[in-house]
Design brief:
Helices cover 47% and strands 15% of the residues. The chain is an alpha/beta fold. The strands form two sheets. A six-stranded mixed β-sheet has the order 1-2-10-7-8-9, sandwiched between helices. Strands 5-4-3-6 form a four-stranded parallel β-sheet, with helices on both faces. It is globular and about 55 Å long.
Length: 311
């Protein structure tokens, strides 16, 4: 039995008014771990335990680690999650509350991941990469299967991209549904646009630094799998500002009473701001509301103030 839940697929009149075309929301924010990550991390964890793993180790900026913690609790195995110092106290607390041991190492996710590799080797645990594994992509693809089962064929899919795991899953799901011709808008924020760099270069590119406040998009380098997969389908890179992402979070909270992270706000912003790649769609636009647990109303208020244009 899957560890993730089937999530709501709902039309949005508020976003349709902005885009001029029907907009549907796949609300991954309603997963028990508050993001899509439970789909892929849950499947990867199940398969690791089925192979005999008695301990799970993962690295994460937050959401993947929270999902692994949920999976480990459901499967009855201990979990250790290594996070960078950029992961806030709220997310560390959520991971710990779900039953996992939290260790802090490094300034960014890449450094935390190296520590997780060493820990898994030392402790003999199964290492679960937060985005770069076929099991994870297969798990994430299940969200597109649910869309297909509901009978909605999108004319565009809008999805935030960090390390590339969710995008890989969306692309696999489109292929499985026979929708390989559907364009996908892969959205990132300035200062965390590792997919845009890789898409332009035709191969993964390592960013020198991450400057976006959308920390859960904070992979300096996307996985090879997403670059090669994106070459085979119609994937279009879109980069937005932190300010646009945060404004979209604020508007989405008012419109749909759902609080999401700036990484999710990045995807929502291309609809709210009427990006041409959205408004020119000849049919419904599907937005993956990827969610995210590391956000509070107070944080959102702070981000709005931080990104406000000077008067």
């Amino acid at each position: 039995m899957p560890l993730h839940h089937a999530t709501p697929l709902l039309p949005s009149t508020a976003l349709e008014a902005c885009a001029g075309v029907p907009v549907w929301l796949k609300l991954e924010s309603s997963q028990p771990s508050a993001s899509f990550k439970l789909r892929g991390m849950g499947l990867a964890a199940e398969r690791a335990v089925a192979r005999g793993a008695t301990q799970l180790v993962s690295s994460s900026g937050g959401n993947a680690g929270y999902a692994v913690a949920w999976a480990g609790r459901s499967l009855g195995v201990p979990v250790t999650v290594v996070v960078p110092r950029s992961t806030g106290a709220r997310m560390r607390g959520l991971i710990a509350a779900a039953g996992a041991e939290v260790r802090v190492h490094g300034a960014v996710w890449d450094e935390a991941h190296q520590a997780a590799i060493a820990l898994a080797e030392e402790a003999g645990g199964a290492l679960l990469h937060p985005f770069d594994h076929p099991d994870i992509w297969e798990g994430h693809a299940s969200l597109m299967a649910e869309v297909a089962e509901a009978g909605l064929r999108p004319a565009r899919v809008v999805v935030a991209v960090g390390g590339g795991g969710l995008l890989c899953g969306v692309l696999q799901g489109l292929e499985a549904a026979g929708w390989s011709d559907v364009p996908v808008l892969a959205v990132e924020t300035e200062g965390a646009a590792s997919f845009a760099a890789a898409h332009a270069a035709g191969e993964p590119v390592t960013l020198s630094e991450l400057t976006s406040l959308a920390l859960t998009l904070g992979a300096r380098r996307v996985c090879e799998g997403v670059v090669s997969h994106a070459r085979q389908l119609d994937v279009r890179s879109v980069v937005v500002t932190d300010a646009a992402a945060v404004r979209a979070c604020d508007r989405f909270l008012d419109d749909h009473r759902v609080l999401v992270e700036p990484s999710c706000g990045a995807a929502l912003s291309v609809v709210y701001d009427g990006h041409p790649q959205v408004t020119e769609a000849e049919g419904p636009v599907l937005v993956i509301v990827c969610g995210g647990a590391a956000v509070t109303r107070a944080q959102l208020a702070g981000w709005l103030e931080q990104t406000a244009e000077p008067r």
